[in-house]
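pasting input
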Amino acid sequence: MSTTVSVTVNGTKYDLSDVEPRLLLSDFLRDMLGLTGTHVGCEHGVCGACTVLVNGDSVRSCLMLAVQAKGAEITTVEGLGTPEQLNVLQAQFREHHGLQCGFCTPGMLMTGEDLLRKYPLATDDEIREGLSGNLCRCTGYQNIVAAIRAAAALRAEGTS
Amino acid sequence: MKPAKFEYVAPTTVDAAVEALRAANGEGKVLAGGQSLMPLLNFRMTRPAVLVDLNGIKELSFIELRGDHVAIGALTRHREIEQSRLIASKLPVMAAAMRHVAHLAIRNRGTIGGSLSHSDPAAELPMLSLFYGAKLSVQGPSGRRTIAAEDFFVDALTNCLEPEDIVVEIEFPILQHDGWAFEEVARRFGDFALASIAVSLRRAASTVEDARVAVMGVADTPLRLKEVEDQLRGIAIDDQMPDRFSELVLSCVSANGDLHASAEYRQHLLGQLAKRSMQTALAAKGW
C-alpha cells in the first residue's frame, strides 16, 4: 500500500506518489527529495540531528511519518541560507566556531531557529535548557551556546 | 531502525477511529503525537498491523474552562499546554511542569492523550493527572466511559485501556489553593525524571487547611501521597515545616532503583526536592 504526498519543502512544492506509509519523514527528505542536509543520528528521538521545521515548529523528522506531512510546509537546513549568504544564526555559528565535525549542526540550527522564535533566551541557562535535546560530541556545547546567545542579542537589537 | 510494514488509517472522527481499531482485531495501534510510539516502531519493538493516526481529528484538540474544571482534548500538544494562559491561571502546577516535558521539538508534537496512554512512570502529565484527581474520558466500541486517574495507572507503561479504547479528553478539577511548587531532577534537562514532586496548599490563619502531594520517578507508577496530605491538614506552619514535610514524604515512599539511579540516590533526591518544594510553596504570594 502506498500513497501520494504533496508537501512544500523550502518553498518548492513536491507531489510524490508511491510513498510507503512506514517511510519516516527524515528518509523521505533525504532519499526521495535528495535533501541530505537533514542528518539521521539515533532514529529514536534522542539526538536531535534530524530536526526540521514543520509549519514553523521544530520536530524530529525521524519521529514523524512522511504521510503525516501531507499539505505541510517544511523547512530544512537547506532552506535557511546559502553558502554565499548565510542566515543570521548560521553566520553566528561560523563567527563563534559553533561546529566541528558538523554532524549535529543542521539539528542545532533548526532547533536554534525555533528557540529564537519562541523563548526570550535571556540567560545561558535558558539556552542550554533549550538545547538539551540536541547532542554534540565535539564542541562541548560552549561555542554553540555562544552562537545562539549572539543571535539572540542581534534579535534583541532588531537586526535579525 | 525502520518500522515494519503496517496499514495506515487516518480517520477524521473518533467514531471512525474506534471502528478502525475494532476492525484491526487487536492488531491496531493508535498514533497521536508519536513521540513514544515512533521510537518503538523504529526499533520494531511493536509491530502493529494497522496504525490509526488521530492527527486528523480536529475536535480532539482544545483547552477549555468548564465551571470548576479545565478540560483538555487528548490531541492537545504539550506546547499548547505550556503556552496556555488558562492553564497558567487555573492549573499553575501543570504550567510549571511543562518546561520539564522533554524538549521543544518533542513538545511541539507530543500530546496529553498520548502521554497518559503511554503511562511512563517518570512522565509529568500522568503524575499531574493523579495530582489533580483528573478524570479521563475514554471511547471504545461500547461508547464513552470515565476513568479516574487513580484507577487508570496499573504498572510501569501499563494502564487499564483496552486495545480498542481511545482517550478522548481529560478533566482536571481546579484546586482552590494559594501556594504550590513543582520540582524535578533529571540527568539531562527534559529527560525522564529521576525524582519529582508536586505540592499545593491552602492556608487558613497559620495552619494548613488543605494539601495535595504527588511524586514520580520513584515507583512503577506516579504516586499521590494521600497519607501525607492527611497529616499536613491542620498542622501549624512554622520554620520547621520544609524539613518535617521532607521526613513525612520519605516515610511514605520507598524509592525503586534502576540503571539510571540507585534507590538510595532517588530517595535522597526526593527528600531534598520535598524540602525545596515546601519552601517554595510557603513563599508563594497570597499568604
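fyi DSSP finds five helices and five strands in chain A.
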